[in-house]
Amino acid sequence: MSATRVLVLNSGSSSVKYQLLDMRDSSRLAAGLVERIGEETSRIRHTPLASGGGTRESVGPVADHEAALKAVAEELSRDGLGLDSPELAAIGHRVVHGGKTFTEPTVIDDTVLAEIERLIPVAPLHNPANLTGIRTARALRPDLPQVAVFDTAFHTTMPDSAARYAIDVATADEHRIRRYGFHGTSHAYVSRATARLLGKAPEDVNVIVLHLGNGASASAVRGGKCVDTSMGLTPLEGLVMGTRSGDIDPAVIFHLARVGGMSIDEIDTLLNKKSGLIGLCGDNDMREIRRRIDAGDEEAKLAFDIYIHRLKKYIGAYCAVLGRVDAIAFTAGVGENASEVREAAVAGLETLGLAVDGALNAVRGDEPRLVSPADARVKVAVVPTDEELEIATQAYALVKK
Q1: What is the reported pLDDT for 232?
Q2: C-alpha span between 238 and 243 (Å, rounded)
Q3: Exposed, middle or buried: residue 180 (CB in 10 Å: 0-12, 13-18, 19+)?
Q4: Which residues pair with 320 in a beta bridge?
């Protein structure tokens, strides 16, 4: 039997998420998480999906990413799915930043590793952790193809008119400053899944994808290719997020430094970790914010209104960018589950052909579905994202070549 399994690894600074998939039918064989790596209270949570067994959990010190991946291998082995299995075709790695260099999934070698490392200055929180996971996996299975799938790759089709910032060209080029965009695996998956939901080919559909989680981003996808996205050089730009400010006048930074006496690091922390919803009302969980609004909390209501106002601006802008919009797709934790966000985001946009059906919008489910009226000119969809399946699909297609 030819190898058909792909292990997907998402290595963060203190965690490793993983899924093992069989690409014959895209089924999940196992999934899990190692978190708080480097602490005494590290936790391993593993679910053997193929056997239908219950989730196994253990708490204890996991020293580093090498120990974490060895623990993952041991958990998989307990279910007969170990890394030494001849059915394992590849390991697919989520890599946040691929710059302009990596426009598609790439088999990892020393040259690729060096380039990912060179991009650390534009992704200082993410690429180092991704590299650690890759190096550890290569050491465990040096004979197995390791594939990097980049968050930025889907957005590399943007024209320069969308990707360039209006600053001195030489300075921008020297420091690799441009709009890269993120959440690309999600935007790629959801845009194609939306086309399938409409019964059309991706190249025949224009879609606005709204990936709304703790991190949030929007993209304008024309005929299967991204032509604009809200995140920029880093994931800070764009929509209001759980802890990130999104769009802000750059002069606010100068003002905080000159008048507020704040250091660059303090401003960085403010905008990335103490802003957005948590900065506005002290909560970054949309469920809690809605509960507070229902209880009459004006601070929570204002935070929600600011969140929706920014979202509406991007929907309108991307309608203008695309010219013709066939669908708007909501995805990720908030997009998939917060019906109030979907309703508020399109309210008042009827002249753009947008509306939701109240009854359809209130229904919860795990499958892609339309929540707009049957006669709506622009369809509004809820499309659960599946970044792990997207990474596995891209990695498997590459190694099969």
Answers
A1: 96
A2: 13
A3: buried
A4: none
Distance CA 355, CA 353 (A): 7
* Predicted pLDDT at 1: 45
Rounded to whole angstroms, the Cα distance separating 90 from 55 reads: 25
Q: Verify whether residue 151 is a known catalytic residue.
A: yes
- Phi, psi dihedral angles at 251 (to 5 degrees): -70, -15
Burial of 43 (0-12, 13-18, 19+ CB in 10 A): middle
pLDDT at residue 82, rounded to an integer: 86
* Residue 358: how many other CB atoms lie within 10 Å: 11
Q: In the prediction, which pLDDT does 25 show?
A: 93
Rounded Cα distance between 289 and 242, Å, is 11
Q: What is the identity of the amino acid at 44?
A: I
Q: Which helix (H) or strand (E) holds 362?
A: helix 358-362
- CB half-sphere exposure, 234, CA atoms < 13 A: 16
In 389-400, which positions are buried (b, 16+ CB within 10 angstroms) versus exposed (e)? Answer: bbbbbbbbebbe
Q: How far is CA 131 from the centre of its chain?
A: 18
Count CB neighbours of 155 within 10 A: 28
List, in sequence order, every residue forming a beta bridge with 122; answer none if it has no partner: none
Give every CB contact of residue 221 below 8 A, 6+ residues apart in sequence: 187, 191, 205, 206, 207, 208, 209, 227
Query: Residue 110 is encoded by which pair of tokens?
Result: 């020393």
**pLDDT at residue 51, rounded to an integer:** 76
String of DSSP letters for 215-281: SEEEEEEETTEEEEES--SSTTSSS--SS---S--THHHHHHHHTS---HHHHHHHHHHS-HHHHHH
- Report d(CA 144, CA 106) in Å as an integer: 14
Q: Residues of the chain whose pLDDT is less than 50? A: 1
Name the strands in the sheet holding 327-331, side by side, starting at the edge strand that comes first in the sequence: 225-229, 216-222, 206-212, 327-331, 379-382, 369-370
- The percent of the chain in helix, strand and coil, each rounded to the nearest 5, is 40, 20, 40
- Specify the pLDDT at position 116: 93
Q: Within 10 Å of residue 333's Cβ, how many Cβ atoms?
A: 18
Name the catalytic one among 22, 79, 151, 228. 151
Cα 23 to Cα 32: distance, rounded to the nearest angstrom = 18
Reading the block at residue 130, the tokens are 């991704």
